[in-house]
Amino acid sequence: MDRFHHIDPISNEEVSHINIYLDNTLSDLQEQLDLHRPILMIGSAGSFETFAELQDSEFKPSFERPEQQIDIERFRDISHLIISSTRAERRQMVEIPDVRVDMIVVATAMTNYILRMCEFKSLKLSAYSLKEGLLFEMLE
Fold first, then answer.
1. Residue 18 pLDDT more than 70?
2. Is the pLDDT of residue 7 over 80?
3. Which of 51, 56, 60, 90 has the most CB atoms less than 10 A away?
4. What is the C-alpha separation between 41 and 136, in angstroms, rounded?
5. Is 15 in contact with 83 (CB distance < 8 Å)?
6. Do residues 47 and 107 make contact, with C-beta atoms less than 8 angstroms apart?
7. Residue whose C-alpha is closest to residue 109's, from 7, 14, 6
8. CA atoms of 117 and 63, how far apart (whole Å)
9. Could you give the angle at which helices 103-117 and 27-36 cross, rounded to 10 degrees?
10. What is the CA radius of gyration of the chain?
């Protein structure tokens, strides 16, 4: 975030710099996507919970409902809203927690980048994240 987001709202040039950075750092990911051709992209925690809340203001993270579908076309609208908004505008969006107001912009740009890498058919949020996976492994 500190490396790329200096103008409010983020500029097209800054988004381009994020994309160039990701081109240089995610070549292994591109190789794996080309090899395995996944059709589902799963995100967890923070930013994806924010995307889900922006899609559905009634959404609440829950382990009883461990998956939440995020419509890709709706995500594109949400993405445009986030990328084009100022910090003050994002602070007014009740679905974006204060701790995410700044980082959601770069997270959105990165999610857009990955969605362009592969022809994903769907996008989901998992209620489980890295910390739950680590706890599960520790319990075994």
1. yes
2. yes
3. 51
4. 22
5. yes
6. yes
7. 14
8. 30
9. 40
10. 16
Q: What is the pLDDT of residue 39?
A: 95
Residue pointed to by tokens 């809203």: 81
Query: What is the distance between the alpha carbons of residues 70 and 91, in angstroms, rounded to a whole number?
Result: 22
Residue 49's CB is within 10 A of a number of other CB atoms, namely: 21
Residue 125 CA to residue 70 CA, distance in Å, equals 7
CB 90 within 8 A of CB 36: no
Peptide bond into 9 cis (omega under 30): yes
Task: Average the pLDDT over each of 3-12, 53-62, 66-75, 122-131 and give the range with the smallest value.
Answer: 53-62
For the chain, give the number of residues: 140
Give strand ranges (E) for the chain. 40-44, 67-70, 122-126
Give the whole-angstrom CA distance, residue 8 versus residue 17: 15
